[in-house]
Amino acid sequence: MIRYRAAWILPIAAPPVRAGEVVVENGRIVRVSDAGDAAAIPFDRECEAIDLGNVAVLPGLVNTHTHLELSWMRGLVAPSNSMPAWAASLMSLRRQHGGESVGPIATAIEQTRAAGTALVGDVTNTLAADQLLRDSSLAGAMFYELLGFNAPNPEQAVSAARVALHGEPDHPDWIRTIVPHAPYSVSPALFRAIEAAAGDLPVSIHVGESADEMEFLRTATGAWRDLLGRLGVWNDRWEPPGCGPIEYLDRLGLLNEHLIAVHGTQLPDAELERLATAGGTLVTCPRSNRWTGAGVPPIQRFYESGVRVAVGTDSLASVEDLNVFGELACVHQLAPHVPARRLLESATIEGARALGFRREFGTIEAGKRAALIAVSLPRHVDDVEEWLVRGIEPDVIEWLDEG
Ligand SMILES: [Zn+2]
């Protein structure tokens, strides 16, 4: 049993506690002081007491959207002002390379952990990161992503994916499930086949990312239509739904509390409200949106709409690092009026909830995993929450011994 004392404890489930204490034992949180009883926790057993000094202790962060297998692409896909053009470059690079490299995945996992992240939502087309993730100290959801705008046999594609995904025994720290890529790359029949297999597990989908996607769904025209033609997968029988992506997913049976709508950069208010009403989660990745040419996400509107907002870095193909604190700094810059506390919730409990781990991660509460980080603070910090959303580098982050 270890009793940590720190200048600040951020339980997330409650306001920050000055000169707080948290007790951990065998990997679990036993007790945390709340405002009012700080430093007044009674102890019935002897335990090691550690004064961490001028640090903020908070739960390990959640990166709700990344693609670790693309880590070898770091810096290789140039920023663009057109998302379909950027995606075409990525696909061409991937074809030339012929397989995902394991070394960069291992490095990315180490850097993820060093940046204070405990939980990830990792999208994969190849399962290349599978073993490394199971052997790592990260936990999370592994989303085996299918594409197929003109797939001949969607049910068969889903059962083949199930066989590949469940070839390895289950791991208690990992949820593994099949997800569709995006409305412009998945046929309605494949969406339905994936929906039928999803059960109560989270389903992560890229939606409302670029203006081109909105045009494609309205009128079946534009850069995505052209790209599908060039790739030889356009289907003449495909009818545009004539609506936004959230309404489209609703018609396909995928709009519910398990939906993780990634990006949403172009979603109008009505679509955000529809997602909010269904209890789905929006994951914003603003640094990636800037890189790929998807646009600037309307962060303040996201929060005002009432939708649950989580944060993701996306992959190293479209962002300079996988540091969630860095992503938060960008979110904060784009929406300085959204309270820092809400941004910290997005990077912790909202992500944990969306990925299906809210009972284990995302807050400092008795019974949850003792996956805790300590962030060193400068001598005078007036507002610790505000400080934490201005960008924190790994050199001031330490993982606490879980007792
Ligand atoms: Zn993505």
Entry keywords:
alpha/beta, 15 helices, globular, 403 residues, seven-stranded mixed beta sheet, binds zinc ion, four-stranded parallel beta sheet
Structural notes for this entry:
With 403 residues, this protein is of the alpha/beta class. Helices cover 33% and strands 21% of the residues. The protein is built from 15 helices and 15 strands. It has helices spanning 83-97, 102-114, 130-135, 154-165, 188-198, 211-219, 223-230, 245-251, 269-278, 286-292, 299-304, 324-334, 340-346, 349-355, 384-388, and strands spanning 2-9, 17-25, 28-32, 48-51, 55-59, 61-66, 117-124, 139-146, 174-180, 203-207, 259-263, 281-284, 308-311, 372-376, 397-399. Strands 1, 2, 3, 4, 5, 14 and 15 form a seven-stranded mixed sheet that branches. A four-stranded parallel sheet has the order 6-7-8-9, with helices on both faces. Helix 4 packs across helix 5. The longest helix has 15 residues, at 83-97. It is globular and about 70 Å long. The termini are close together. The structure holds zinc ion. The site of zinc ion has 6 residues, from loops.
